Amino acid sequence: MPDTIRNQLERDGYVILEDFLSRAECDELLDAGRDLARNLPSKHQRTIFTSVDGEKKQMKEDYFMKSNDKISYFFEDSALDANGDIVVDPKFCLNKIGHALHLLHPIFRCYTYSERVKTVCRELGFRVPCVAQSMYIYKNPGVGGEVIPHQDITYLHTEPIPPIGFWIALEDATIQNSCLWVVRGSHKSGVHRRLVRSPDKDGNIIMVYDKPNPIYPESSFLPLPVCKGTCILIHGNVVHKSAHNRSDMSRHAYTFHIIEKQNNKYSPDNWLQEGENAPFQNVYTTPQIV
Ligand SMILES: O=C(O)CCC(=O)C(=O)O
């Protein structure tokens, strides 16, 4: 069988596309990410994002739930004190920005709806590939928090065709500065857990996990160090993670998720829903705005 990206994704659960962006293109995105980080929200609007023990906390947050159609800022757990004051170098205080960069920011929009993305979607066999969300991930030196092992389908549940993540390294991602780690082939093991809207409509918990996160043996993970400009395609069911960045180098990345809209069910229980201001736009028919 020819080693097409479709076959690789089916076999391994991920695909490494080297030189997806040039160094200059990465620099343009890096500048955009750094520019955004220079305009931090005021003290009372600061929300932490951590995948470790903040899971429940941020799910209650309106700010998180309403970020589907906004450019919202999420801080590192260790960057804020209890009053919301920044206790690290402010240029390193962000965990990520999301989840509508692809709709609202001209530079991120241009790269998300690019010819290269369309080509990959065609090669993967998508019929109506739509962008559901986008994030700029900072993974800043010293403070960049751990991302616990997870499958993206836990958060963006679609059936029968899983979502695909495009994860683009804007800087070299190494073991030292916390590259992605994957469990190769784990996408063949079903959906391990789901984050769903809470049935308790009167309570203040909006989202709940249906089960605890499974324990994945450390030895099953494979590191994916990649050069600046590489795109890693991530199957929605493949287990992946990244460690706390304890190095003195940042590891910025831009990522977005594509879902198939034809003959595929996007769960109404997902935290992120399509809205008037957050349409899931078709990659093939959305023009690239330069
Ligand atoms: O960039 C990272 O460190 C992890 C990103 C990730 O796992 C995700 O977005 O699903």
Main β-sheet, in a few words?
8 strands, mixed
- Main sheet strand line-up: 1-13-8-15-5-4-3-2
β-strand amount = 15-25%
* Count of individual helical segments: 7
Q: What is the class in the CATH system?
A: Mainly Beta
Which stretches of 5+ consecutive residues score pLDDT under 50?
none
**SS-based class:** alpha+beta
List the helices and strands and how they pair.
Elements: H1 5-12, E1 14-17, H2 23-37, E2 47-48, H3 55-60, H4 62-65, E3 71-75, E4 94-99, H5 101-104, H6 106-112, H7 115-124, E5 129-137, E6 147-150, E7 158-159, E8 164-169, E9 180-182, E10 195-197, E11 207-209, E12 222-224, E13 231-235, E14 240-242, E15 253-260, E16 265-266
Parallel strand pairs: 2-3
Antiparallel strand pairs: 1-13, 3-4, 4-5, 5-15, 6-14, 7-16, 8-13, 8-15, 9-12, 9-14, 10-11
